[in-house]
């Protein structure tokens, strides 16, 4: 679909039909819808109320609020610096995106490693708040999101027309996901803050499954090249450091029973740019304290991420889908996920760049 034909709202895709193992037609239809959403937006709402009871993530945001409302010295007890500088709590404005402080605080968790060593980047231990049931409830969520990530990956493999063996190969590179979970707290963004609640960025990994509280008008998604026909959207340019492409920022307001799902840069490599990782940001100006819980379903630490034969077949068959980036010569070089991640995190330590840069 040409960019101009895109609607200024993100599609809603129910995962329920894909979970009907005996109904191949229903599974194919869901897989096709996800494929189209990845071509057009890199973002979609995934309706998951058949998979997880909506009261579960509501309880998680309650626990998160309890933590963020506790005294600063209590929160600092699980500070990032106690561990590997990646796992733990970051204070309000500690993270920087595009050179500007983000108006949020948060706790980051990564897949546990077998021989933790906090002197090695990423190789420390997760730090949990001491609030009763916090860890137990979040551990259940992590397991569910890991399984959901794998379900969406399978649907994407079908959407791309992968053979069963091709899917098994891809599955082997994500079946021990080096996942990340963030619990983010956003106070209202002051008018005079030089920056955003969370600055514009692309997610760098594989799939993001984002649960947020019901706050509207906070998460915004950049539709590159789209025109401004909706009164809800604002015409804007990209931040200077990301080029000067025109487009619009649309609100991705939460929908009950759904998570927002978006694809990260690993999918750009797997598909040689056929699927785009899309810029997004958070601008939370309402008066409440907003909580979001992104779960990043990532490849295995040692996974080699390289263009998939199924994506190359599509690109060869249909020259109309050859993206501008390929025409511009962007190479989508293969990466080993763990090296890519270490480079990113290492950069953050050395240069003071933030985790979203
Ligand atoms: O809080 C949100 O809605 C989005 C957060 C986000 O984009 C991220 O953590 O990568
Ligand atoms: Fe993000």
From TrEMBL:
Q: Where is the Fe2OG dioxygenase domain?
A: 177-299
Q: Where is this region: Disordered?
A: 227-246
Q: Which family does it belong to?
A: Belongs to the iron/ascorbate-dependent oxidoreductase family.
Q: Which InterPro entries match?
A: DIOX_N, IPNS-like_FE2OG_OXY, IPNS-like_sf, Iron_ascorbate_oxido_reductase, Oxoglu/Fe-dep_dioxygenase_dom
| Species in which this protein is naturally found | Meripilus lineatus
Q: What is the name listed in the Swiss-Prot or TrEMBL entry for this protein?
A: Fe2OG dioxygenase domain-containing protein
Q: Kindly list the GO molecular function terms attached to this UniProt entry.
A: metal ion binding; oxidoreductase activity
The uppermost taxa in this organism's lineage are:
Eukaryota, Fungi, Dikarya, Basidiomycota, Agaricomycotina
User: Keywords on this record?
Assistant: Iron, Metal-binding, Oxidoreductase
Which SUPFAM superfamilies is this protein grouped with?
Answer: Clavaminate synthase-like (SSF51197)
